[in-house]
Amino acid sequence: MKKIYKYIGLLAITVSFSSCEKLLDVTPNSEFAPGNVLTSEKGIKSLLFSAYAHQQTQQNSRFVINNSEVCTDMALNSAGAENGQLIHLMNFTWDPGVLTFQADVWAPNYRCIRDANEVIENIDQLNASEATKKLLKAEARVLRAQA
Amino acid sequence: MNQIKKRLSISNLKYLWVALLLSAFGQLYAQQIKVKGTVSGSDGEVLTGVSVSVKGTTAGTMTDVNGRFSINVSSSNAVLIFKYLGYSDKEEHVNGRENIAVVLEPENTALNEIVVIGYGTVRKSDLTGAVASIKADDLTQGTNINMQQALQGRVPGVQIYQKSGEPGAAMSLQVRGITSITGNNAPLYVIDGMPVNDAAAIGAAGVGGATNNPNNRNPLNSLNPSDIASIEILKDASSTAIYGARGANGVVLITTKRGKEGKLTVNYNVTFGEQQVANTQRFMTGDEYALALNGIIAEGNLNTGIYQPVTGTNYNTDWQKLLLKNAAIQSHDVSLSGGASNTKYYISAGYFDQDGVMLNSGTTRYNASINLETSVPSKYNIGFSLSTAYIRDRYNAKVTGINDNASALYMAQNYDPTSPAYDSDMSFYRSPLMAPMDNPLAVINGQYSIGDTYRTFGNMYAEYFFIPSLSAKVRIGADLNNSKRSFWIDPSTLTGASYGGYADVRDGKRGSYLIEGTLNYNKTFGIHSINAVAGSTYERFTSSTLIANARSFALPDLTYYALASGDATLNGVGNGAQEYIMFSHLGRINYSLMNKYLFTASIRVDASSRFGPENRFGYFPSVAVAWKIKQEDFFKNISVIDDLKLRASYGAIGNQPNINYLYFSTYSGGRDAVFNGQRVSTLAPTRSPNPALQWESAQQADIGLDFGIWRSRITGSIDYYNRRTYNLLYSVPQPLSTGFAARTENVGSMRNTGIEMALNGVLLDGEDFKWDAGFNITTLKNKVLSLGSVDEFIGDGPGNIGQYSILRPGESIGSFYGYIVDGVWQVGDDFSKAQAGVRPGDLKYRDLDNNNLINTNDRVVLGSSLPDFYYGFNTSVSYKNLSLAVFIEGSYGAKMLNSSLVDSYYPVDFRRNKLADLYLNRWTSTNPTNEYPSFIPGDPQGSRNVTNKTVEDASYLRLQSVRLAYKLPLSKNKFINNASVFINGQNLHTFTKYSGVDPAVNAIGDNVLRVDYNSYPLTRTFTAGVNIQF
Q: CB–CB of A93 and B673 under 8 A?
């Protein structure tokens, strides 16, 4: 009987301490670790392409047009849900409550800068030819400047 | 074995409790008479571990596994005292006898009910924490799909509301207010000792078009409420700290029904009923619509090229009515239970079917469960419980979008009421003025989804008693949720036509696996009584999803059953898998001195993989004391009061984020780039990681008083609570320049305080006539104390509401932020104070900074979504076999944003239909009201969606349930033991000033801020049923 106690105690201690940290190790199966992405040419290219994507296909690009053109005589909006925001632009009375600048105009560009910056930061560790590195870095810099 | 055990018990006593035994040895020197005997319960069962002591001395012993005891007394006139949990104390005069057989009577008062607490049970009178215990009989009877419906309004400190009237829709259950901003605010649910993984297996997000449904079905729907024996709600830190990192929002312990010793009992319960729409919002009829809109055009001299007058044939279509109907509800529950001396069983099966009052919605559940237990007192205890359910859900589109992405109900409320529903060729009529909105009937019939949920949870345990007072228990359990959701957008809808039909099938799995071991120690030594538990648990939670979709179908007839018949080049796939692990140690000791002074201390150490290695461990201790004042000698003579107990507790409890992997950086698929006309896939950072992320920690103090007067005719309790949450988890908006929208951080602190009170009274207790009543009320005050270095956060609402909420120190969480409307600008007002271009008939917003411009500086806090107090009242009257039960519940002071008002005040389109009350009573030059504006487009102040006009008071009082039951008079010894018939009405009437569909909904799925966004209407339900017991 005493033996049983010993075993239980031993088991409890073993389970408690020795393997605790290991027990809590989890792997995000469906997400890429920075090691996968930032050290391979394919990975860093995908990141660069994301910077391109934020420049090419901005969400709701109509807002970019609407926001700039209603301030001129080129466009007029007279009704609809967007009128609630655009009327402030037409009257030059916009304030921080007009979210379209932030959400539709600036945010995609900043996401482009974010991805381009990561490419530039990590390109030197890449296992690739100097020419490739130079090219990718240059592309990222152009995208960043453009954004 | 017996020998070994006896030896062990003696050695154990010696080693652990030497001091106590030493005091007993004093007795050995006096003249000794040996008294032997047995102790049994009134039903004949042998009682083990009964404390036997000699009155006036410290000598004591306990009965062994056969109920035998042996004790030395100093005189033949000595008096023996017998004490046992759940039984009345008994004093027995020895009177010279050497062999005594004692029978203990079970205590029947409510105070001696056994209450389940975390990792153990305790007698109600020995509770030191704030724990509400509800037996099945005290739940709201009726046709309830889940236990929260039956619990609504019954427990002080627990606020429950149905988020929408959809069959099976998620419920919001909050214990003592809001703990967290963006962390978890739902309590931990523990079913038969197994914490369940109560997240939906498939997210709310749907696919393009309008099949989204922001309100998931309630995962607890898979537990049939008729299988529940009792529900305990742990509210204060002393009772919840044993659940550590998941205890901050309270813990709901659900105990399912067990078999009772005796012959087979069969119970069958059947109900049938009908549901009606309780309330709809009144929009203009075709005639009113034509009158109002043409009136506005005339009054405002509007350009009829842009604002087209209402002309042509008026069909007066009531679009809402076309989507709604009366719907049937039924349930059948059958259970078989019984047991022999050592083994007990309970098996049950149920069927529940609720059709929705909106077309194409409903839920059907099939479930079965089994509970088995076998035990020999003080030797071993083995049990197994398993519950499994299949649920088929039918969803119509309930999104919070606008235009073509809106729900069918939204379209019905907004669609031109002069239009016909169908064209002359019986196709859906579409008014060109309503584009891009679709015909509501087309949407409700052509955009829908079905859900299949298979959920099984259960656990088995084995407890072995080394000695009667010491046992070890091992429990293993699993909770598996395997769900599928299939979406279909038919080409007969505008969205579906643009896709050529769209099908999306999602498969989601969730699993949680538990293994735990505990040691339990339970012993009474004279005036000391100790009950202790210590153990470790390991839990692993997994989830995975698989998504496939297709469009452009050759023939759409097979809907989501034939993805392969779509255009293969347009197919989409996706999948994901996640896991997280918790590993914990726990311990608790309850100590009772002279059955007057009770002490509890507990601790849990949790380690969670949701945090980085430095912040992985959380420590959650608690202490509590209770004083049974009634047991004091000076109180014994006050016979009016028969129970009085003062409690106080303090402790730390935790909360963790709902999301995995927040502490490290990863990459996932991003937006496609296009090069040379080819799409190229990309990778982008998944999140802005926060390696310093740690537990949200809540510290809660609780002071409570339990009382019973006039032989427990009136019982009650009152509690004061104060809970501060530190290191609040919040998805903090990040500077735009980071490229990330938000990051989960620990910021600031928040406090919830309140008083909760429950009173129950037996008002009349005659032979034939009985009347009892209960009342409970909870006050709630929330205050954000600090947000770290940030002054305030302003949040965005669903749909096109825009900024609507604020988090600011000093204010309550869930506060609406917007403008004050003082009235309407009238002819003759001083327009020098108005914004340029404002006309008579425009809304008069309060210009707080007096700059003649209405802008974001003019916003104020408009009130909070949290009520000041909420309450429930129930009463039942019975005369002979007839009984009537009435239940009323309500809440006061909560605010809710009514999105239908937003859409009417600030319409998306002039020609959309609007709320009748607003437009028929609008400002005109002949009706210069201050209530409603002229609604003439062109107000230069813009859409100020969140105002004191659109944020409404959602206080209400509701006649929630009335039930009339008749117990059939049956002669004894018949086949049928018991039979009763009943009729039941639910949600019969609501008293409220709120103008929307219902003051207690929250259709957007956010538990903190309440927005009535075209909510699925609540129902009034009438059911009739029979309960038979064989």
A: no
Nearest residue in chain B measured CA to CA from A102: B736
**Rounded Cα distance, B826 and B839, in Å:** 8
Contact B842, B825 (CB under 8 A): yes
Q: Name the maximum alpha-carbon separation found in chain A.
A: 93
Token pair in block for residue B570: 């347009």
> Which of B579, B855, B909 comes nearest A93 by C-beta?
B855
- Is the Cβ pair B578, A28 closer than 8 Å? yes
What are the φ/ψ torsions at residue B547 (nearest 5 degrees)? -125, 135
In chain B, residues with a C-beta closer than 8 Å to the C-beta of A104 are: none
List the one residue out of B576, B605, B745 whose CA is nearest residue B662: B745
ipTM: 0.81
B3 in contact with A, Cβ within 8 Å? no
**Percent of chain B scored above 70 by pLDDT?**
94
Question: Chain A residues with CB inside 8 Å of B674's CB?
Answer: 56-57
Q: How many other CB atoms are found less than 10 A from the CB of residue B743?
A: 17
- Tens digits of per-residue pLDDT, B447-497? 888 999 999 999 999 999 999 889 999 999 999 999 998 989 999 998 889
First-to-last alpha carbon distance for chain B, in angstroms, is 43
User: In whole angstroms, what is the distance from residue B763 CA to residue A37 CA?
Assistant: 73
Please report the DSSP string for A6-52 in residue order.
Answer: HHHHHHHHIIIIITHHHHT----TTSB-HHHHHSSHHHHHHHHHHHH
Q: At what angle do helices A107-122 and A41-56 cross, to 10 degrees?
A: 160
The full DSSP string for B618-650 is EEEEEEEEEEEGGGSHHHHT--SEEEEEEEEEE
- Residue B989 tokens read as 């009437």
Nearest-angstrom CA–CA distance, B147 and B903: 35
Residue B769 exposed, middle or buried by CB count within 10 Å (0-12, 13-18, 19+): exposed
Cross-chain CB nearest to A110 (options B681, B736, B945): B736
Give yes or no for residue A81 having a pLDDT over 80.
no
Tokens of B41: 């319960």
Which residue from B673, B737, B909 is facing A80, i.e. has the nearest CB?
A: B909
CB atoms within 10 A of CB B420: 16
Contacts of A84 in chain B (CB under 8 A): 800, 802, 906, 942-943, 945
Interface contact B685-A25, CB threshold 8 A: no
pLDDT at B180: 82
Q: How confident is the model at residue B207 (pLDDT cuts 50, 70, 90)?
A: low
Residues B603, B622: Cα–Cα separation, whole Å: 6
Contact residues on chain A for B472, CB-CB shorter than 8 A = 8
* Calpha distance B840→B13 (Å, rounded): 90
Question: What is the C-alpha to C-alpha distance for residues B765 and B451, in angstroms, rounded to an integer?
Answer: 49
**For B682, which of A49, A84, A95 is closest by C-beta distance?**
A49
What are the tens digits of pLDDT across the range B2-50?
444 444 343 443 443 444 333 344 344 445 788 888 888 776 677 877 8
Shortest CA distance to B396 belongs to which of B386, B384, B381, B411? B411
Report yes or no: B261 and B218 within 8 Å, Cβ to Cβ: no
User: Which chain A residues are within 8 Å of B660, Cβ to Cβ?
Assistant: 26, 28
Number of neighbours of residue B598 by Cβ within 10 angstroms: 22
Distance from CA of A62 to the nearest CA of B (A): 17
C-alpha to C-alpha distance for B779 and B871, rounded to whole angstroms? 9
Report the greatest alpha carbon distance in chain B: 115
DSSP calls for B402-461:
-GGGB-HHHHHHHS-TTS-SB-TTSSBP--GGGTTSPPHHHHHHHEEEEEEEEEEEEEEE
Quick one: which of B373, B389, B117 has its CA closest to B226?
B389
